[in-house]
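Quick start: what a row looks like.
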Amino acid sequence: MCGIAGFTSLHGAAPDAEEVVRRMTRPLTPRGPDGEGFHLGEGIAMGSRRLSIIDLLGGGQPMASSDGRYKIVYNGEVYNYLELRADLERRECVLRTHSDTEVILQQYARDGVNALKEFNGMFAFAIWDRDERRLFLARDRMGIKPLYYCLRGGELIFASELKALLEHPRVDRRLNLLSVSKYFTYGYIPAPDTIFEDIHKLEPGSYLVFDRDGLQRTTYWDIPLDDNPLSERNADEWAEDLLVILRDSVAKHMRSDVPVGVFLSGGVDSSVVTALAAQESPSPLHSFSVGFDQPSYDESVYAKRVASVFGTKHHEEIVTLGQAADIFSRVMQLLDEPLADASVVPTYVLSKLAAQHVKVVLGGDGGDELFAGYPAFQAHKVVQKLSFLPISWRDFLGRLVRHLPVSHRYTSIEFLMQQFLKGLGLSPEIRFMLWMGFYGIAEKKRLFSTDLQHRLLRDDAFEDISRHIRRSGLKGDFQRLLYLCMKLYLPDDILTKVDRASMAHSLEVRVPYLDRDVVDYACRIQPDYKLKGLTTKHVLKRAASALLPSDIINRRKAGFMMPVATWLIHMKDTIEELCSAAAIRDTGLFDPAFVRQILDEHFQQRRDHRKHLYPLLCFMAWHREYAS
């Protein structure tokens, strides 16, 4: 695991290239505290910060091919590197190290872009071809590892994090106003856009080729969902083989020259990974969980139950209200783009806890996207069942919600109904993403200043939904929703959150559910075996029944979420400072009167505005750090 950065100079030598590339890699030090390396050649400058996991002594970067033609900087892990290494040796390739870095480099030297088909893992890498004066950038299928780039002055600049790109003198901080609009819709900014106009994310499953002829972008892999995955297999048969594939994935993900632990929330996804990892580990496994001092959000009792069943060395930390403001401020400094997923706070605490004991952990992310685990899937089915009702029923529900008592519990009826009503009357795909997101269309109009609304008049914040639906070719609503979860929410929210929070503590998080073979298999399973009635993740729970106690499998889903509504009240002083009328006016983006209204209503507990205030708070914290 590493942090990488670099830039080309095909159209003229950069006299300060070494100073610039060193400056770019400096913010990436937490991603790679174990060493650094640089390559400066004609047309290229590359740098790497290394977190040593595989081949601790021999895997240094940048790494050169034996003939010196190719140089690589690489962030990630390729879990099938041993099998690929054996194949390369059969092809009479002599490898000088035991690292997966050299396997990637040699595979590319022999097969070019076709090498990407062979890699099973998480990765973002850059390979410089000295002879062709060509730079090749690639990102893994699911977008587990990040890669940013910017084309300026005819040269390509790249880095693992946006903050590293900002260290290059040609990269500016011009705000992308459409990205601001998208952020308040989703809570994140979908790739390929970023918060800045001229900086882009390389999309999952894609690669770039840059040379004197310019930049070419190509998709090499896509989510293999079909509208009608027909099969004569029943749920038990699917579940039996799913468990075999998951077991193999966990075994590969535990390949490491340093100790491996697990994140354990007590939910089905992380509990399955813990069970399989405990069976694979030759010694007791370290497990880690975070709890809250508010019962409706606290899952720690379930995590302890699973840890007890599988004999792990369990470590737990309880996060209190008193820690909220301090942790929030530290976490916001990590995020070089606004991100409104509040679970980044407990993920940060969890990663800090784990890093005190291990260097690598396995996580349960991806299970909800592959197997329809989110409540929004249930809500979608409910709306389908109620489609016969007249439009007037929405107005009645809206009036009803306004009279419900305000509660800050995780399962607050008032809050859930507000979210449910937000997307009614829109297409299933937009409705679903609004349920998963923050501001609805009308709410965003009230938030944005008149000037910003005018400048966004012809822009479409839902363009990414339309683009992905067209690309997928899918016709059915349910499969489209799964596809959108895997193309938008998973890489740009969940995986981004985990990457930043864990890398802040030099901790590598691996995700067995996003193994190539697991994803391919899960995408072939019929939708009815994922959401059966209103039971989410049905086939995964059937598979889990061979491993886990029934009370863990069948308990209500809580999600890895902190008590945002209550924390916001406790953080009143911080919020009043960041969201003061002067600060809001200075951005030129928001209506100070609307912001004051939602602040007062929430602080006085007349309305639950967690979905309005938290993204605004995160944006204002980011704006003060990066844009002001």
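That is the whole record. The chain has 27 helices and 17 strands. The chain has a mean pLDDT of 90.
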